[in-house]
Amino acid sequence: MHILFLTDNFPPETNAPASRTFEHARQWVREGHRVTIVTCAPNFPRGRVYEGYRNRLWQRETNDGIDVVRVWSFISANEGFALRILDFVSFMAAAMVAGLFVRKPDIVVATSPQFFTLIAGNWIRFWRRIPWVLELRDIWPESIKAVGAMKQSAIIRFLERVEMGLYRRADRIVVVARSFADILAARGIDPRKIDIVTNGVDLSRFLPRRSDDLRRRLGWSGRFVVGYIGTHGMAHALETILDAAEQMEADGRTPDVLLAFIGDGARKDALRQEAERRGLSNVQFLPSVPKEEVAEHWGALDATVVHLRATDLFRSVIPSKIFEAMAMGVPILMGVEGEARDIVLDARAGLAFAPESAQGLADAIRALRADPALRRDMSARAVSAAPRFDRHNLAREFLDIMKRMVRA
After folding, report:
1. Which of 52, 225, 268, 327 has the lowest CB atom count within 10 Å?
2. What is the pLDDT of residue 152?
3. pLDDT of 201-225, one tens digit each?
4. Are 229 and 261 in contact (CB under 8 A)?
């Protein structure tokens, strides 16, 4: 089977969509199938093309047996609604053309979070007369309202009508959370054409470890380090972590606690400047690290924060980083409600606090810091629960869905 996959994020980018697509595609190739990825020059989240790449009309490479076609797109940082839309639309147009020149695909998969890629998938389905899988990683455009990037308007209403049309035209919809399936069913989409393939973790790469050498290099020896790893965007409301750091520094009860921000994104510079303005000495900012170094940084943490804004929409989101943290045995401080919180609490892999509650986060950090036995228990239980989210098995579930569609 030849799988044509459209995505605007792919390694060397390290965000969740890039990792999921790469790890699935690599497994499909190992199962004996051909995979062609149509993507753009790597640039997320800064909106700058990575060193060693150029933003060309067409370029090809091979990554772990995966055929990768990179097309030109207008590149913009992850900020500014108009520029981001231009970025999305340009990739959509380029993917539409590129998808017509890929030789003999049997099926096309187009993935969100930005749904303009889904329009390209529908276009290729029509012209190539092949089945189309819509992979839904985010409820968009609802999510841009949730982060305050744009309010309800005629434009949003138009995009929502396009969104519903795409759901109806897709031959199959694969969602990453049960709550997404429930939302689509409530909006009138036939639940019989919806499958759930959750996010997961590559257990061959993410294993329990203690990165003592890295801790020494970073000056973390003797500190209780709580880290946030990932994109620093509008959806994450990371000012909450700064507020908690300020509270903890003011009360002076836990002088050894350090809050570390690891990653990049549209809000990174503003967060760093705000920490400097407040004079916080218990906060440290580190750059994004290559994919092969992420596990080492997980191993340097005593706990991790997973956080999203306090909106109803984000109750349906399951951040993929929780599975990496669980596999590494890192206790999770969970500032996301809904299905994601249930996964963490059911596994007894962390503590929950209300989203955007700095006091709740500070109290959770203090509780975890004061109880080494609790940390050890959470770590062990997290590692025990992680195999339920083995990415290899999840990739096979996705592959079985596509096989059935091609045979039909």
Report:
1. 52
2. 62
3. 999 999 999 999 999 999 999 999 9
4. no
Place of tokens 């025990």: 384
d(CA 282, CA 248): 9
Strands 194-196 and 283-286 turn out to be unpaired
pLDDT at position 260: 98
Of residues 254 and 387, more confidently modeled = 387
Q: Is 259 left (phi over 0), alpha (psi -120 to 50) or beta?
A: beta
Distance CA 173, CA 27 (A): 20
How confident is the model over 255-275, as a mean pLDDT? 94
Check residue 307 and report its DSSP letter. Answer: E
Checking phi first, is residue 338 left (phi over 0); if not, alpha (psi -120 to 50) or beta? left
pTM (2 decimals)?
0.87
Cα torsion 208, 210, 215, 221: sign = positive
Tell me the domain boundaries of the chain. Answer: 2-200+390-407, 212-388
The neighbouring-strand residues paired with 172 are 133
212-388 topology per CATH: Rossmann fold (3.40.50)
Collapse the DSSP code of 11 into the 3-class scheme (helix H, G, I; strand E, B; otherwise coil) and give the result: coil
Neighbouring-strand partners of residue 390: 201
Report which residue type is found at 142.
E
| CB neighbours of residue 399 within 10 Å | 18
Could you tell me which residues are beta bridge partners of residue 6?
38, 110
Please check whether residue 185 is in contact with residue 147, taking contact to mean a CB–CB distance below 8 angstroms: no
Q: Could you tell me the fold of the domain covering 2-200+390-407?
A: Rossmann fold (3.40.50)
Which backbone phi and psi does 213 adopt, to 5 degrees? Answer: -60, -45
Residue 334 and residue 240 in contact, taking contact as beta carbons nearer than 8 Å: no
406: helix, strand or coil? helix
Query: How far is the CA of 46 from the CAs of 242, 246, 261, in angstroms?
Result: 22, 27, 16
Rounded-to-10 torsion of CA 73, 75, 79, 81: -40
Confidence of residue 316 (pLDDT cuts 50, 70, 90): confident
Q: Characterize the bridge pairing of strands 66-71 and 58-63.
A: antiparallel
Decide if 2-200+390-407 and 212-388 have a common fold.
yes
pLDDT at 144 over 70: no
What percent of the chain stands above pLDDT 70? 95
Residue written as token pair 């228990």: 377
CB burial of residue 396 (10 Å; 0-12, 13-18, 19+)? middle
Phi then psi for 39, rounded to 5 degrees?
-145, -170
